[in-house]
Amino acid sequence: MAKKGQKFQKYTEEFKQEIFTHYSSGIPTSVLSKRFKVPEQTISTPEYQ
Q1: 46 pLDDT exceeds 60?
Q2: Among 14, 18, 31, 43, which residue is least crowded by beta carbons within 10 Å?
Q3: Residue 3 to residues 6, 8, 16: CA-CA distances in angstroms?
Q4: Over 60: is that where the pLDDT of 48 sits?
Q5: Would you tell me the crossing angle of helices 29-36 and 13-24 to the nearest 10 degrees?
């Protein structure tokens, strides 16, 4: 749940697509989150994919 005053990140479609291609090729979310500085949970949510 979001905290009061929390700012949300907005990612471009190109950025999302780039991460998704890496994710679908089998690279773990932990590696992608460190590489792209995106939380693991964000990558693994179905809405993001």
Answers
A1: yes
A2: 14
A3: 5, 11, 24
A4: no
A5: 150
